[in-house]
Design a protein that fits this description.
By secondary structure, the chain is mostly beta strands. It has 3 helices and 31 strands. Among the domains are: about 170 residues, no CATH class; about 90 residues.
């Protein structure tokens, strides 16, 4: 699952800045759609001007009336994604249906094989993916607001925040009956730099990776990623508790080293669910994976097949080979998520979500075949 941990939103690093620069440089490739993007952006500002977004979320606004799209999550072959001012939708076998109205969710949602989880106020709810029945999983009278993450064994980590009393803490909750299993962290200062449990513990497949402080100071601590107490990096290198990406079967960390000054010298620690771990120079931000093959959008390439934007490339970490997925229709790629059969792409200046089938030659993915240009229509 492309596990976008909620509290990682807002992370900005050098690669993001480079991506924006590359995007700006490629505007000439997208001149035909430029006016559409600005109309959409203007529409978003108009919505803010006439009423708060929070108010709009309390209505089943027009289907497809969102200002932008973000990649969803694929679970058991079904694709779950959010449409602004509408709700969470499910796309499977060419059929699109709404499973959660925006009215019921105001604090985020996540989905895995155990169900669709969402928060409203200071409550966390679970929806059964088959029956769509909902039940309140967790509720608290403490704090001013909450956040939550999903564990890979089907449980939920709830973060309770209090911006008035200035504290925060995390509890582990049973993902089926809502019982509190344990309090993972004591109450710490709302403004503390001390990381919560979810910022130090990660899991990919059956592998559990823990970050152990190994230097630095209170403001910029250095962490060593460990597995079963064994360090995954050579001495003299470290990671932060923010610079990471997590997609199906893969987790990667930005690696730092004393004296390294240029972006070209940066490295990544990449851990696969099946036990493979590699340390290598950072080439791109990887958004997907098929086995040991990493998928990414190349914002700098001038060799994008049939695309008026950026293409999707593959990097085989076993052989070192890189290639682009050919496509049978023009498309502008920016963000995506995938499993072994399907890939769903979107751009932040439109509400559209595009569905592609991944085509193979043997075990090698070679192209994308367009299934639906806009699944929300």
């Amino acid at each position: 699952m492309k596990n976008k941990i909620i509290d990682s939103i807002g992370k900005i690093d050098d690669d993001m800045i480079e991506s924006v620069d590359a995007l700006r440089q490629s505007k000439n490739k997208r001149s035909k759609t430029k006016w559409i993007k600005w109309v959409a952006i203007a529409a978003c500002f108009c919505l803010v001007a006439v009423g708060s977004i929070n108010t709009l979320q309390r209505f089943d606004y027009l289907k497809g009336a969102g200002c932008s799209a973000t990649p969803g999550t694929i679970v058991d072959g079904s694709y779950y994604y959010k449409v602004d001012h509408s709700g969470v939708w499910k796309y499977a076998d060419g059929v699109n249906e709404k499973v959660l109205n925006t009215y019921w969710e105001d604090g985020g949602w996540l989905v895995n094989e155990s169900g669709l989880y969402y928060s409203c106020g200071k409550n966390v709810y679970r929806m059964d993916l088959d029956t769509l029945e909902r039940n309140k999983l967790f509720s608290t009278s403490e704090g001013t607001h909450i956040g939550f993450d999903l564990t890979q064994d089907g449980n939920v980590i709830v973060t309770v925040y209090d911006k008035d009393a200035r504290f925060k803490y995390q509890v582990l909750v049973n993902g089926k009956d809502g019982g509190v299993i344990e309090q993972l962290t004591d109450k710490i200062s709302y403004d503390s730099n001390t990381p919560l449990f979810t910022k130090l513990h990660y899991q990919v497949g059956e592998r559990k990776i823990e970050l152990v402080q190994a230097g630095g100071d209170e403001r910029t601590p250095h962490y060593m990623p460990t597995e079963n107490g064994v360090s995954l990096l050579p001495e003299g290198r470290w990671v932060s508790n923010y610079g990471y990406e997590h997609v199906d079967g893969v987790i990667s960390f930005d690696v730092y080293q004393e004296g390294r000054e240029t972006q070209e010298e940066s490295e990544m620690l990449i851990a696969f669910a099946d036990g493979k771990t590699i340390l290598e120079p950072r080439y791109n931000n990887y958004s997907g994976a098929i086995g040991h093959i990493l998928l990414y959008v190349d914002f700098n390439s001038t060799e994008n097949f049939g695309s008026n934007g950026n293409g999707i490339w593959c990097y085989d970490t076993d052989s070192g080979e890189k290639w682009q997925l050919k496509i049978d229709s023009e498309c502008e790629f920016y963000s995506f998520t995938n499993d072994n059969q399907m890939l769903y792409s979107c751009v932040p200046w439109s509400e559209e979500q595009t569905a592609w089938e991944i085509i193979y030659e043997g075990a090698k993915p070679v192209s994308l075949q367009l299934i639906d240009n806009n699944i929300i229509e």
